[in-house]
What does this fold into?
Amino acid sequence: MDKILIEGGYPLSGEVKVSGAKNAALPILAACLLTQGNSVIHNVPSLRDIDTIKRIMTLLGVEFGQQGHTLAVNTENVQHHVAPYELVKTMRASILLLGPLVAKLGKAKISLPGGCAIGARPINLHLKALASMGADMYLDRGYINAKARRLKGIEIFLDVPTVTGTENIMMAATLAEGTTVIKNAAKEPEVQDLAYFLRSMGASITGEGTDTIVVEGVKELRPSEHNVIPDRIEAGTFLIAAAMCAGDVLIKNCKPEHLTAVIEKVESAGATVGVHLDYITVQGPEKIDSVDIKTMPYPGFPTDLQAQFMAFMCIADGWSMIRETIFENRFIHVSELRRLGAQIEINGAQALVRGQKQLLAAPVMATDLRASACLILAGLVARGGLTEVHRIYHLDRGYEALEQKFQKLGAKIWREKS
Ligand code: EPU
It folds into this structure.
């Protein structure tokens, strides 16, 4: 298994370009199943999760062409409807294939995603919505089986504004008979990007980015072309890293408006942030002030940056309270941060971080995607030797060439293959 080695203590400076958003590209690729023909998707990041969805879609009969970050997606010959356990178990977002398959083929058989390191992660709201839309659903030997003639539009209130749940329902509703109203819908930019793509395919959708999305079903959709939005979580990771490492960094190809809550917190910690149309400049402070955060659905502080912000607060001056409200087990990085000398107390969904003058290099283990990024950030400031981050296959699921991007900014970081 590969590991990442970091000699911490070097300031970051220069420019870094953000890749396309994983969590937008995944539903957009799944949405190509709603039509027959060739769609073209630009700015698709090169990641293991993208490879996984391509592998499953290839089993369904989809053909892919690729040039750099542009994917040609040919859905002319989609005949199969099974997403197998072996692949779904490596990526929960495979559930995004459920809505498009039922809506277009009238059937789907998808391995039920299990929990993951950060929580139980149920999909009851996806299943309940599709069943209310008329899909006949049952669980057999670990697979969700769904069948429907033509789904029917309904009014749905989501108990929680689930991101992939909103996306699944929105995709299914595009080809349903009648109008679907999704109340308490997720407002994340990735949901909005999917809505733009679906609209370019001929779907009738309004309200994305608000908590009520209305979809008027149409008979068919046409192939389309789309440019995936930049990854706000990757941009936020660089923003926090630059603020931690006394950096002077320009983060290119991002949408600062997607990071308002994060920018506000990084500024409160003392960094100087310049917001421009499609780039951000960050200068790290000499002294980092402690700041409290609470994760919330968009536009609140994203759970996917909680671990990275915690690494930041580990070297702040004072105490910081970090509250996780989205996932019940998203503090697994805490015990690894403690190995670097961090002082953190956990009490339920709250972590109290007592900032230290220094973190000390040590071997640590990544436990999930965002925890990997958190440990790399901590390694960039840890002194006294090399920080080794093990199990970085988690990192490769969602960050494109992260260590190379940090190298370009002057960090002493490299990958050791084994
Ligand atoms: N929930 C339910 N029932 C459901 C669905 C969700 O109770 O049917 C609960 C979850 O247990 C959780 C909350 O709702 O407490 C929010 O979960 P959500 O469904 O929004 O998460 P998701 O759609 O599975 C996406 C991202 C995650 C990101 C979350 C929250 C993708 C592919 N994944 O997951 O990304 O953390 O939204 O913003 O879009 C990551 O990229 O590292 C990652 C985990």
